[in-house]
Each structure stands twice: as structure tokens, then as C-alpha cells.
Amino acid sequence: MIPFSLAAAALATEGRLSGGADPDSLITGPLVFDSRDITPGSLFCCLPGKSVDGHDFAVQAVATGAIAVLASRPVDAPAIVVPDVLGAMGQIAARVASEFTGTVIGLTGSAGKTSTKDLLTSILELDGPTVATPRSFNNEIGFPVTVSRVEAGSRYLLLEMGARGLGHIDSLCDIARPTISTVLGVGSAHIGEFGSREVTAQAKAEIVRALPAHGTAVLNGDDPLVAAMAGATDAAVITFGFGELCDIRAEQVGVQHDGRPHFVLVNGKDRRRIELRVHGRHNVLNALAAAATATAAGIPADRIAQGLRQAEISSGGRMEVTTRPDGVTVINDAFNASPESVLAALAALGDIAGATRRKVAVLGEMAELGEEAADWHDQVAEHVVRLRPAEVLGIGSIHMERMLTVMTDAGLKASRSAVDPEVPLIEEIRRVLRPGDVVLIKGANSLGLEAVARELAAPSAV
């Protein structure tokens, strides 16, 4: 946090101090909404939840190090009382961002945001102190928390921006306006909420329209809906992709025997062979986006190459590949499940297994696809049939039943999970696994498959 006083915070939020709060006390730690994350000098935000209310933890928060709490009613602790805690979090973060003199980078897209953020962070940290969105803190709650973590000595503030409707990214840019905006692609994630890819593109373009004239838009030149966003700004434009017209592109793309991709990174006349530590050939596009964004920030080519070569996906649940002592390889890609990410994960399953190892797919039904849901589930089923895994376990109802029918009709051994409600999913998976298998765990975050994948990957699971 760039420190400022409780009095200044009250002024920024149109709040009032209560509970004996000292107006001269300095907030030196970030905004926190989970009492387990409190650090000395932080400001605890009393958000109401479905089952708990942050106000009930106000006293505990201050006792464990918070300088005060942000609350919508008086509590028995030093507090800034505001009309709306969530809105006040944004106002405080905006105050912090206004004093930040480094480079603010915004990143959005229908898929790949968090993986690209991790790859880009690896590059930026070689160039200077960097604050980046933790995990997937990319909404109206997590975003101001990330902004509040920036310090006076930070060089980069890398902000992942999610959206579930028009105006969402605009509101995030009002808190911290980027000077570099990167758009990865417009896909099918949340299309049931947006209504169409065109509307999704309008929402994602808000990050480009927010740029100042001296900024830079970094756009996927292979995606027509993204490339068209160049017309939404007076800022400079850098494109990335596989097409020959892209400013930064990949050539000679291949995959090693363990599923890690390699390629030649082309940036003007500069050509460098990159071998990624991360799995999945889809991460080549994410690496190109990271390289193009770093180029926009003025980072030299050798540092970009070094950052990509040593980068890992640290956010969890995204191409997290673990091989157990019995030779079973678990692909934990269970954080989310847009259609594009499911197809990419299936390709990775095929690459890692190769021609000799048995493949097992544990797939959850995809959500928020609206009228396109049936078509997308059919497409995924067709890809699974071409992949020919030895076993498929499906989790879900109507659409999953349809998928499994397509698979079984094609001769695959595919079944609905939890046919016997007394048998936990992990036991069903263990039942079909053999030593040396490769198993993919992929599904919507709401299904809780990430915990299953982690338990399955543990050495004790053998």
C-alpha cells in the first residue's frame, strides 16, 4: 500500500471515523476482506456474505493487526463508516492508483487471462518490482484489493480484468486506468450472460477505450473481433498471433514429449527459440500476448525471452501437471471450463499421453453458454471421440448425458459419474486408473473438481 491516513481514507470515501479511530493513523497494508489475510497496518473490509458478515469479525481483525475496518455501520473497533463498503473499497484503491507513478497494465479476454498474467509477471519481475493480480482477483472485489497492494517502489501494476456484462471493465478502469491494455480473445465464456460474441467484444473493448493517447493497445491479431478494437483508440497498437501480419508471432510451433510447447518467437528481425516450462500448446498464444505486452512496456527482447523460458503457471488449477510415483500423470485444469479451454485441455491430454499411454478424461458440464450450450457440448463430444480415451467420466445432467451418448455410440467407455451416490468421485476415478495413465480433470469451478484433482495428484493417492 502507498500509505495514507485514516482521515484521508474517510475523505476519499465520504465516510466518517468511529470507534476511536485515530485520524492520523496510517494505512500501510492492503485492503483485506478475509480475516485470515490480515497483515499489520491493513484495512479490513466488512463485506456481507451469504453465510457470514464481515462486521462480525471487526474486533478480531483489529486485534490481529488491522489498523481499522471499513464498515457500513458502527462496530466495536476503530472504523471508517461508509454508505457502501464495496464502493468505498474502489474509492480507496483509486486514491492509491492516483499516487502510483509506475506502469499500469490491464489484461482481459474470454480465456487465458490468468495464465497470461502469470507468464507476463515472470517477465516484468526481471525488469522491476511488480504487483500482479493474485489468483483470479479480477472482479469488483478482488480488483481494488490488488490495486491497494501496490507500493511506492513498484514499477509495474498488472491487473487482470474480468467482465460479466457491459460497463464492468469501465468501472474497473475508473479505479486504475491502464496505459497498456491487452486483449487476448473473444470466446464463448459467459456467452449466456452477454448474449453474443459481439456484445462480449463490446465489453472487452472497454479496456482499449480507456487508454490515453500515449498508451498502447496489445491485440490478438488473429481474432477479428479483437483486431477491430484498434479503431476504438488513438493509442499505439501492437498485434500478436500466428498470422504473418502480426507484429509479434510464433513460428515452428511444436510440443515436446511431455506436452510442453516450443516455438520461435518473432519480433521484427529478432528471432528466439522459446521452450516453455508450462504445458499445453494453447499457452503459446498466451506467451505471445505476454511478449507483446512486455514489448509495449519497453522491456528488451533478451529479458522477454528469459522471462518466458523460466515462467510457470502459479495460480493453480490451470494446466497443473503432476506425475505420481506409480507413473499416473494428473492434469489439473479444473479451475474453469469454457468451451475453448476444454478443447485446449483435451489437446494437452493427447500431447502428454502420446501414442503409448492410456488416456482418462474426467469432464464436467460447461455452464453459462446460453443457446449455444447444446452445440458446444456436441463439439466437445466429437473431440473426445477423436481423442479416443480409454475411459470418460462425465459430471453433469442434460448436456452431459447427451455427450456421453455420443461417446458410447462411438464405442468409447463413457459413463456418468456418481451413478452410485455412495461412491465419491475420487474413488470412481481411482477405480478406472492404471499405473502410467494420464488423467485430465476439467470442469467449471462450481463443481469443485480442483480439490478432487489435488487429492488425486498427491503421492498418498497411489
Question: Mind explaining what this structure looks like?
Answer:
Helix 5 (142-148) links the parallel strand 9 (130-132) and strand 10 (156-160). The chain has helices at residues 6-13, 58-63, 85-99, 113-127, 142-148, 168-175, 191-194, 197-209, 224-227, 283-296, 301-310, 339-353, 373-387, 398-409, 425-432, 449-457, and strands at residues 4-5, 16-18, 26-27, 31-32, 43-45, 68-71, 79-81, 103-108, 130-132, 156-160, 180-183, 216-220, 236-241, 248-255, 261-267, 270-275, 320-323, 329-332, 359-364, 391-395, 414-416, 438-442. The protein is globular. The protein is an alpha/beta fold and 462 residues long. The mean pLDDT is 92. It contains 16 helices and 22 strands. It is 35% helix and 21% strand. The chain has three domains: 4-84, MurE/MurF, N-terminal domain (Udp-n-acetylmuramoylalanyl-d-glutamate--2,6- Diaminopimelate Ligase, Chain: A, domain 1, 3-Layer(aba) Sandwich), CATH 3.40.1390; 100-310, 3-Layer(aba) Sandwich (UDP-N-acetylmuramoyl-L-alanine:D-glutamate ligase); 320-461, Protein-Tyrosine Phosphatase, Chain A, CATH 3.90.190.20.
Which labels suit this protein?
nine-stranded mixed β-sheet; UDP-N-acetylmuramoyl-L-alanine:D-glutamate ligase; Udp-n-acetylmuramoylalanyl-d-glutamate--2,6- Diaminopimelate Ligase, Chain: A, domain 1; single chain; alpha/beta; 462 residues; six-stranded mixed β-sheet; Protein-Tyrosine Phosphatase, Chain A; globular
**Into which percent range does the helicity of residues fall?**
25-40%
Could you tell me the strand content as a percent range? Answer: 15-25%
Largest sheet: 9 strands, mixed
Regions with little confidence, pLDDT below 50 for 5+ residues: none
Specify the CATH class of the largest domain: Alpha Beta
Mind telling me the CATH superfamily name of the largest domain?
Mur-like, catalytic domain
Structural domains: how many = 3
Instruction: Please tell me how large the radius of gyration is.
Output: 23 Å
In the CATH hierarchy, the third-tier topology of the largest domain is known as UDP-N-acetylmuramoyl-L-alanine:D-glutamate ligase
The number of E-state strands comes to 22
Structural class: alpha/beta
CATH architecture of the largest domain: 3-Layer(aba) Sandwich
- Average pLDDT: 92
Strand order of the largest sheet: 9-10-8-11-12-13-14-15-16
Oligomer type = single chain
Number of helices: 16
Tell me, what's the shape? globular
In whole angstroms, the N-to-C terminal distance is 44 Å
